[in-house]
Amino acid sequence: MVTPASRKPVVRYLIEHHGISERAACKLTGVSRTAFRYTAKPSGDDVARERLKELAEKYKAYGYLLLHALLKREGLVVNRKHTYRLYREEGLQVRTKKRKRLYRTRVQLPEPTTINQQWSMDFVSDQLINGRRFRVPNVTDNFNRELVGQLVAFSISGDRVARFLSQLGETRHLPERIVVDNGSEFTSKAMFEWTEDTGTTLQFIQPGKPTQNAFVESLNGKFRNECLNQHWFRSLDEAEQIISDWRENYNSIRPHSSLGYLPPLAFAQQAA
Known about the structure:
- With 272 residues, the protein is α/β, with parallel strands linked by helices.
- Helix content is 45%, strand content 11%.
- It has eleven helices and five strands, in the order H-H-H-H-H-H-E-E-E-H-E-H-E-H-H-H.
- The protein has helices at 4-18, 22-29, 33-37, 44-58, 64-73, 80-89, 158-168, 189-198, 214-226, 236-252, 264-271, and strands at residues 118-127, 133-141, 147-150, 177-180, 201-204.
- It has a five-stranded mixed sheet with strand order 3-2-1-4-5, with helices on one face.
- A hairpin with a 5-residue loop joins strand 1 and strand 2.
- The longest helix has 17 residues, at 236-252.
- The termini are far apart.
- The relative contact order is 0.11.
């Protein structure tokens, strides 16, 4: 059976290649002008599917739960099973390399009850395409998991860390304490003097116990997987810009599972 839908390309061909009017072309092919002009509206499933593919392309390291949170925020899906079905049908499985790891007992940090009460800080390193390595100290607020700030540089001394933290303090209150490891930057004279001047305490974890700084360790993993591992950096300026863009997305858009799939800034606003 020849349907009106199958005749529409013929009508279009007659109009475009033979200069026949729409009325005449429709009459010749037996298609009503209403049927020719009709365009089916995409179903909700189609819209969600296309948006899911767009988000998966943009956020290559996101699994279906984070993508589901973004789709739900846009009102395109309701339950996880719907998202997971579309995710599987489109073959959007995240491919990650399994790394050997030592499993250590996690130490429970005291839970902060408000922002700027307890921060955590740690370093991550990477390299430019020419092989030159750079470092990034990550500072996170342990209450809402906000990435408070990052510094991108080839070399970072204790004095540089102190100046960096003071700069963060110009736009927000410094915390009561910052959880850090025993790196030379944090045990330096410059950092000792900074704590004396500001009243902020450095809470040192035990040597060889990174899980005692679990908040920032979790952040470091996301930062490496979703940002550093996704790019080749040609210069320090380029790395700084890409990292800055990722930080803005992390704080404002990226869902966080421990915050009820809200981004950090939205969670802080809700808790205020």
